[in-house]
């Protein structure tokens, strides 16, 4: 299926494909897309299947399906090889894609994500939440998630970020969000494959992230040889929005370094 997407920056610029998390949409990456496009990168930010303006299909969407959609979009846009970044569920989709298509990726950005499996309680909670939002919709679910998505500091000082995050979550199509939760509950363990990653990798995490704490990022950093770890102080689960200046600086520095290392053809 063809994903709704934004395609910013010069068409001949170094391609960067950024993958949003759950339950968000491509506007999650707007600060980074605009920042990178201004500096000459070509930045593609899609709405995943069942999110934003991309339609849902079926009641369960595996992360391999999301990854396949992204490869199809890259083929359609003639991206060839590209930098691939994702946050939270988006980071897990990134790990799935680089496992399935390592030849397509020149560098990786793994933000506020984790590679391992859910424990049985967390796995069942995904199924239960999927059933709940299918019946009730996204509003109460969004309000419950919000205090865990962004840090207390962000809620106190960045009402614009809080409003944006709330809007994305409340507006997420319930069918697509539920299908993703069911598929994500059945994802494989990506930890063993981390040692196979052979491209420059940036691991980013907010210091106050409750969902994927710093320890999860440190594990990925240890497993991916030569990776760079950046902890964004004061941020929760969405450092690219909560502390976009610091996040953009880390991302730009990494992209410059990875390009000079010969990671791109």
| Total domains | 1
Would you identify the CATH architecture? 3-Layer(aba) Sandwich
How many individual helices? Answer: 11
| CATH top level class name | Alpha Beta
Q: Residue-averaged pLDDT, rounded?
A: 96
Within CATH, the superfamily carries the name Alpha/Beta hydrolase fold, catalytic domain
Derived structural class: alpha/beta
Shape: globular
Strand order of the largest sheet: 1-3-2-4-5-6-7
The SSE string, one letter per element, is EEHEHEHEHHHHHEHEHH
Q: How many beta-strand segments? A: 7
Percent helix:
40-55%
Distance between the termini: 29 Å
Instruction: Report the biggest beta sheet as strand number plus sense, adding barrel if it closes.
Output: 7 strands, mixed
Low-confidence stretches: none
The percent range for strand residues is 5-15%
Backbone CA Rg: 17 Å
Using the coordinates shown, work out and report the CATH topology: Rossmann fold
Protein name: Alpha/beta hydrolase
GO molecular function, one term: hydrolase activity
Domain AB hydrolase-1: 15-242
Pfam families: Abhydrolase_1 (PF00561)
């Amino acid at each position: 299926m063809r994903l709704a997407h934004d395609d910013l920056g010069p068409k001949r610029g170094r391609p960067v494909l950024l993958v949003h998390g759950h339950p968000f949409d491509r506007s999650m990456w707007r600060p980074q897309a605009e920042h990178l496009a201004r500096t000459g990168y070509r930045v593609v930010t899609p709405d995943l299947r069942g999110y934003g303006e991309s339609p849902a299909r079926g009641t369960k969407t595996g992360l391999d399906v999301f990854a396949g959609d992204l490869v199809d979009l890259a083929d359609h846009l003639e991206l060839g090889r590209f930098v691939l970044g994702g946050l939270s569920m988006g980071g897990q989709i990134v790990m799935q894609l680089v496992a399935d298509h390592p030849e397509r990726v020149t560098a990786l950005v793994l933000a506020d994500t984790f590679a391992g499996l859910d424990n049985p309680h967390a796995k069942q909670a995904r199924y239960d939440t999927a059933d709940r939002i299918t019946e009730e919709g996204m509003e109460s679910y969004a309000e419950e998630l919000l205090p865990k998505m962004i840090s207390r500091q962000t809620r106190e000082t960045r009402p614009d970020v809080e409003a944006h995050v709330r809007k994305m979550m409340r507006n997420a199509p319930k069918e697509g969000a539920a299908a993703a939760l069911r598929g994500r509950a059945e994802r494989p363990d990506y930890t063993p494959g981390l040692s196979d990653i052979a491209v420059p990798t940036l691991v980013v995490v907010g210091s106050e992230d409750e969902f994927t704490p710093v320890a999860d990022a440190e594990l990925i950093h240890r497993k991916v040889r030569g990776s760079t770890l950046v902890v964004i102080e004061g941020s929760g689960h969405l450092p690219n929005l909560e502390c976009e200046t610091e996040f953009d600086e880390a991302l730009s520095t990494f992209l410059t370094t990875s390009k000079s290392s010969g990671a791109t053809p």
